[in-house]
Design a protein that fits this description.
With about 625 residues, the protein is an alpha+beta fold. Among the domains are: about 40 residues; about 45 residues; about 130 residues, no CATH class; about 110 residues, Roll (Chitinase A, domain 3), CATH 3.10.50; about 100 residues, Roll (Chitinase A, domain 3), CATH 3.10.50.40. About 50% of the residues lie in helices and about 20% in strands. Helix 5 crosses helix 8. The protein is globular. It starts with a helix and ends with a strand.
Length: about 625
């Protein structure tokens, strides 16, 4: 049936079908069609509330796509466990419904304005950094969800997240917990190590042709190339379209005039501030007392930046001396903005109270932005006009390419009609190749039955919003074992290294024995003093040292194998971190630990909800 539809896609029957669909949509609307599905069968219920087959299938498809994207260049359809995906999808839907019911039961709600703001900033709906309605609708079409339903699902997700944050943000960390973590994180280890290099020895090791032949015969499957595909393809890049687009001087002048006509010179002010927060542990009276003490220090001549580093509670600016950079009006809360724009350059304000606490502000610079000249703006305007026209042409080409290639018998006709070039790929396997052939969406099309077996043109694949690709099978190369002559050199290197490591075995044991007797000062030994965790200076030796048990009176000695040989290591001392933290560091660490603990708290809370819920899978 599907084949008949494809074969007759341009015929009278197809046009009649499309006409009926358009008429149905025009009379009743898409939403009414979706609404007619309300009688869909259920797949589960949570405390009496249904989860429908439609919801399940939509989430199942989203999870499949996520699995493909996570595989990236290693995408292989055979690795996707359909049963596991279906099970995980069902679990997620049930868990989500349990959380939603709990959140609604606690009267949590999200305003329409919050939902609108989220949609306007939703990354998949952005084009050139701005919300695009067309892009938004295209994304929803891809996941099979009408806008109103998406909005409702988004509302539910935001309500659930509101409950999550309410639980997670109630967590806190005491000083004792912080100190215990720092002892481990800032731990230092002292050790000696010796590298026994097998690669250098391997350079002088001889490997016979007979040994290479024998290894090849015993391990041929290791040298098997997978089934590989060669395709012909058409590629449309938006940047290439922009380069070929002509823009007249009149268009540039008009764009410049519109830009300058709407330009208003805006004063930008660069300020620095010192913040004393009002919190559960710091009352308003205490904060005011502290900010007044700061004002006295500044009046006595202390440097503003140094005082900010010392006392400011704004972690984002304190280490920069309180610097907030240039900003225009509307960037700060009204009380702060009014004070900043009332100052003269280098003047320091009196203490100002905002919702965040008490501030002292210093105005460090003033800048007024003037409109650029036509010559200054020409290249930028030219590029923007070309980009705008290219965007429009790109959208048109996407539609044209889809229409033309769907029913075409090859790529030659579409390429000639649209003025495009047919290219041929290098062979690539199911786990991907070079360039665009590492893209999961391309691989999904390339190894689909429609392309691979039926030898049709693929669907149009959009890559990164600026590239369109259509592919067609050229040649399928069966799986094959590489000939001996193509792999003999790599086999020789492998065998030589193995022989070199065997020769080193006795040396490794001698070095181990000497190290156990305290002798780690001979030739080839390296000393690492008080190395911190994660220090890259001593490479694999440092990583291994932090896995070893702490030594007692004698050093702990061990060895490990590397690709190029062995390393013998003697761990001599372990020193717990004992550095004092300043207030800013302490606050940062406590915030990190509290966030981590809060996530764990929500997991426990969520588990209790799941255990109490009445769940039925149908």
């Amino acid at each position: 049936m599907l084949q008949n539809i494809r074969d007759n896609a341009q015929g009278t029957i197809a046009k009649i079908i499309v006409g009926l669909i358009v008429l149905t949509f025009a009379l009743f609307g898409v939403e009414s069609i979706v609404g007619g599905l309300s009688g869909e069968p259920e797949v589960a219920s949570v405390n009496g509330e249904s989860i429908t087959e439609v919801e399940f299938q939509r989430q199942l498809e989203l999870r499949r796509r996520q699995a493909i994207n996570q595989m990236g260049e290693n995408y292989d359809p055979s690795l996707i466990d359909e049963g596991a995906i279906r099970s995980a999808t069902m679990t997620d839907l049930i868990s989500r419904e349990v959380r939603l019911q709990e959140a609604l039961g606690k009267d949590m709600a999200i305003s329409d304005a919050t939902i609108d703001n989220f949609i306007l900033q939703w990354p998949p709906a952005q084009v050139d950094g701005k919300f695009s309605r067309d892009q938004f609708l295209a994304v929803l079409r891809n996941i099979g969800m009408p806008p109103l339903e998406f909005r409702e699902q988004l509302k539910k997700d935001l309500i659930i997240n509101q409950m999550r944050m309410a639980v997670a943000q109630s967590s806190f960390v005491i000083d004792e917990e912080l100190l215990a973590l720092l002892k481990i994180e800032r731990q230092k280890r002292t050790f000696d190590y010796k590298v026994l290099d097998a690669e250098t020895i391997a350079e002088g090791v001889e490997v016979s042709d007979a040994e290479i032949e024998a290894f090849y015969q015993e391990n041929q499957e290791d040298y098997r190339l997978p089934e590989r595909l060669v395709v012909n393809f058409i590629e449309v890049k938006k940047d290439d379209l922009a380069q070929d687009i002509e823009v007249t001087d009149e268009e540039i002048q008009q764009a410049y005039d519109e830009e300058v006509g709407g330009f208003e010179a805006q004063e930008q002010r660069r300020g620095s501030h010192i913040l004393v927060e009002i919190s559960d542990s710091v009352s308003e009276e205490q904060a005011l007392e502290k900010i007044n003490a700061v004002a006295e220090r500044l009046a006595a001549g202390e440097d503003f930046a140094e005082v900010a580093k010392d006392v400011s509670d704004d972690l984002g600016s304190a280490q920069e001396g309180g610097d907030l950079g240039f900003a225009g009006k509307g960037a700060f809360v009204p009380e702060f903005e009014n004070a900043l724009f009332a100052l003269q350059k280098d003047e320091i304000s009196e203490p100002i109270k905002t919702e965040y606490g008490y501030h002292i502000i210093k105005l460090t610079d003033i800048s007024t932005q003037e409109p650029p000249t036509l010559e200054e703006a020409r290249d930028r305007i030219l590029s923007q006009l070309q980009s705008d026209k290219a965007e429009s042409r790109f959208v048109d080409l996407s539609t044209e390419l889809t229409d033309i290639t769907y029913s075409a018998q090859d790529l030659q006709g579409p390429a000639e009609e649209l003025g495009l070039e047919i290219q041929t790929s290098e062979p690539f396997a199911r786990d991907g190749g070079e360039g665009i052939f590492s893209n999961p969406a391309i691989l999904l099309q390339a190894f689909s039955d429609d392309v691979l077996k039926n030898e049709h043109n693929s669907e149009v694949v959009e890559i990164g919003r600026d590239t369109l690709v259509v592919i067609r099978k050229n040649e399928l190369i069966p799986s094959m074992i590489q000939p001996l002559e193509e792999v003999s050199s790599s086999i020789a290197e492998k065998l030589a290294l193995e022989k070199a490591k065997e020769q080193l075995t006795a040396d490794v044991e001698q070095v181990l024995a000497a190290a156990n007797n305290g002798d780690t000062s001979g030739e080839g030994w390296t000393s690492a003093e008080a190395v911190r965790r994660g220090n890259p200076a001593h490479g694999e030796a440092a990583k291994f040292a932090f896995k070893m048990p702490a030594p007692g009176a004698d050093a702990v000695v061990d060895k490990f194998e590397t690709e190029g040989g062995f390393v013998v290591i003697a761990l001599k001392a372990v020193e717990d971190g004992a550095e004092e933290l300043n207030d800013t560091e302490k606050k940062t660490y406590k915030s990190f630990l509290a966030n981590r603990q809060g996530s764990q708290d929500f997991e426990y809370f969520d588990l209790s909800l799941q255990n109490r819920a009445e769940i039925e899978k149908l």
